[in-house]
């Protein structure tokens, strides 16, 4: 028992330090360090984005105001740049040599680097800014040892004028992040000079350039944003108008296809009935003829089935088919009377025996009715109260002529094109005439009226 008691190690003291691992130290580290790393990473990303904006021009080198409609406005940036370079270059050289007593070669090099890149600013303002800001900073260091402390420093008045034009070019071209970066670099360069020579009284121009450049950048960026918004609005309106016209055309074509289905389906149904009833109507019909009629009836039924499937696709969702028979020339008198009740004095001139003396195909019959219907609807909408004459006649040469002429109205509201009636204005008329292989002639009359003339073939086109 004594040996076992001697082998047991002494119990550790409660106040002795306990060793810890690195992982436990990391877990015990305060969350502030992680937040500091996150803040540092965000700052680095922000600086990197600003640097990328300064190194990446936005535009492809297109001149300023190149999209203006007036040629004088398009040439304006070149004229302003030429005037600035022609005036600032000699003045800068003279002021540096006479007022600041800079050596002639140095003054000429600085003046050239500070003014000539203004030509480049017309097409590539960000690249021009890099050249000019470098030249301006070098010029500030060149004037640092000047004994004429009462003169503006580090930016001369010529530098301020040229720099503001450069800010104008930048504001019209570059992104907002690039503009902010340029403004901050301008302020940082001025702050460095202020730290190097805080006692110079002429250094107030640093604050002046910093404030004026910010104002110019803000104003030009705002004007550019407004112009782009207006341009996008105009483009969207143009696209919407084109889509509206396209949708109107598609709707009218769909309507014509449905009506054409009704016309063709009628004839196919007649063919089916005649083929099915032929063995009962014709006595002693040979077996081969019976099989031929049965084949004709089967093909007609299959065609009807396929047309009904096509009609289901063409028909708008939630739209039911028309159960009434398709209208034709025999219902023109009712249409004209309804127009008269709507307040338009209209009259119809059509031979009473037209449909008896001339064989009118059903597609032409329906198209002629729809053309007159849409023409009268346009008169009601756009020329209320105008006297209207409707004429339908066959010329004896295989053509049906439909003529609708209205006189001037007291007031006209809007053009006929793209109307919102049954046939969608002149678009529907053209589509129907094209379907039948005819021709359409429309246009205003000298007295202020309007004329619609359609020639439709009485035989298959």
Automatic annotation (TrEMBL):
<dbReference type="Pfam" id="PF02518">
    <property type="entry name" value="HATPase_c"/>
</dbReference>
<dbReference type="InterPro" id="IPR036890">
    <property type="entry name" value="HATPase_C_sf"/>
</dbReference>
<dbReference type="InterPro" id="IPR050482">
    <property type="entry name" value="Sensor_HK_TwoCompSys"/>
</dbReference>
<dbReference type="InterPro" id="IPR003594">
    <property type="entry name" value="HATPase_dom"/>
</dbReference>
<feature type="transmembrane region" description="Helical">
    <location>
        <begin position="76"/>
        <end position="98"/>
    </location>
</feature>
<keyword id="KW-0547">Nucleotide-binding</keyword>
<feature type="transmembrane region" description="Helical">
    <location>
        <begin position="179"/>
        <end position="197"/>
    </location>
</feature>
<keyword id="KW-0472">Membrane</keyword>
<protein>
    <recommendedName>
        <fullName>histidine kinase</fullName>
        <ecNumber>2.7.13.3</ecNumber>
    </recommendedName>
</protein>
<feature type="transmembrane region" description="Helical">
    <location>
        <begin position="203"/>
        <end position="223"/>
    </location>
</feature>
<keyword id="KW-0812">Transmembrane</keyword>
<feature type="region of interest" description="Disordered">
    <location>
        <begin position="1"/>
        <end position="40"/>
    </location>
</feature>
<dbReference type="GO" id="GO:0016301">
    <property type="term" value="F:kinase activity"/>
</dbReference>
<feature type="domain" description="Signal transduction histidine kinase subgroup 3 dimerisation and phosphoacceptor">
    <location>
        <begin position="252"/>
        <end position="317"/>
    </location>
</feature>
<keyword id="KW-0808">Transferase</keyword>
<keyword id="KW-0597">Phosphoprotein</keyword>
<feature type="domain" description="Histidine kinase/HSP90-like ATPase">
    <location>
        <begin position="367"/>
        <end position="459"/>
    </location>
</feature>
<feature type="compositionally biased region" description="Basic and acidic residues">
    <location>
        <begin position="23"/>
        <end position="39"/>
    </location>
</feature>
<dbReference type="Pfam" id="PF07730">
    <property type="entry name" value="HisKA_3"/>
</dbReference>
<keyword id="KW-0902">Two-component regulatory system</keyword>
<dbReference type="InterPro" id="IPR011712">
    <property type="entry name" value="Sig_transdc_His_kin_sub3_dim/P"/>
</dbReference>
<feature type="transmembrane region" description="Helical">
    <location>
        <begin position="152"/>
        <end position="172"/>
    </location>
</feature>
<keyword id="KW-0418">Kinase</keyword>
<keyword id="KW-0067">ATP-binding</keyword>
<keyword id="KW-1133">Transmembrane helix</keyword>
